[in-house]
Specification:
The chain is an all-alpha fold and 266 residues long. It has helices spanning 4-36, 41-44, 49-68, 76-89, 93-107, 113-123, 128-142, 150-162, 167-186, 200-207, 215-228, 231-237, 244-265.
Length: 266
């Protein structure tokens, strides 16, 4: 039990205000001692990046499985999307099994989304870029078959609500992820665009800005997104190193979209 606050507070109070100051000082010191006994870590999340990485990894694949089961049946495309993420990450056998187990857990009918998000929320406090990456990974899973069904969208809204992200913001993120995928598949490099490749409208959607945005607005949006997807920053905030390849790929898609806009509009 902490008593030094009472002792010091009482002594200083007596020196300044006599007997009345003594008791007032003890009261202030007691408040200070009680504060020392509080666990403030829960207010600001865990400072252990390794623990955050573990929770981010397992929660990502569990929620991915939950979204895949949202419309009642896990489609071949959704399974393929999860496997593609695992392949893209280059997981070793142990990590791959961990990811599959988490995915299967999310597919269970009794999967508790709120409970599974609780730990992630605690560890992602004041880490908006980490939250956005988690949401983008889930949207990739939801758009595996080329569109987002209403049940899948409702789950995305629930996830967003847990992080105090509005439905409008979720809708904008869905548009961004779909547009980013077009750049990944189209293979745009900044030179002449293939007729079947991404469009300038999609490039603006990748940056999350209107198609009539000026040069300064476009550059500002680009820099913000590149900062949010910076691999080193994400690792420092607690993103698993195995999943950094996702952020790197998204950075390349954002870069490609920005290069297209610069070439065609500015």
């Amino acid at each position: 039990m902490n008593i030094w606050g009472k002792i010091i507070g009482g002594a200083l109070g007596a020196m300044v205000g006599g007997p009345i100051g003594f008791f007032f000082g003890i009261w202030i010191g007691n408040s200070f001692d009680q504060g020392l006994n509080q666990n403030f870590s829960s207010l600001f999340g865990s400072s252990d990046p390794a623990q955050t990485q573990r929770i981010f990894f397992t929660t990502s694949f569990a929620v991915m499985g939950h979204i895949a089961k949202a419309d009642g049946i896990v489609s071949k495309q959704e399974i393929a999307a999860a496997e593609q993420v695992m392949l893209q990450l280059g997981l070793d056998e142990e990590k791959r099994k961990e990811a599959i187990d988490a995915f299967n857990l999310g597919k269970n009918d009794d999967f508790d989304l709120a409970a599974n998000l609780e730990s992630l929320i605690k560890h992602c406090v004041r880490k908006p870029s980490l939250i956005q990456m988690f949401l983008e990974i889930q949207i990739v899973a939801a758009t595996a078959d080329g569109q987002v069904s209403q049940p899948e969208k409702e789950i995305l809204y629930l996830i967003g609500g847990s992080f105090r992200i509005s439905r409008t913001q979720i809708d904008r993120l869905v548009e961004m992820v779909i547009a980013q995928r077009s750049f990944h598949q189209g293979g745009y490099t900044g030179s002449a665009r293939n007729q079947s490749g991404p469009t300038i409208e999609q490039a603006y959607k990748v940056l999350g800005i209107p198609a009539d945005s000026n040069k300064a607005e476009t550059k500002r949006a680009y820099r913000k997104l590149m900062s949010q997807h910076h691999p080193d920053k994400l690792v420092a905030k607690g993103m698993p190193e195995e999943m950094i390849k996702v952020a790197t790929e998204k950075s390349q898609e954002i870069q490609a979209a920005y290069e297209m806009i610069k070439k065609q509009k500015f």
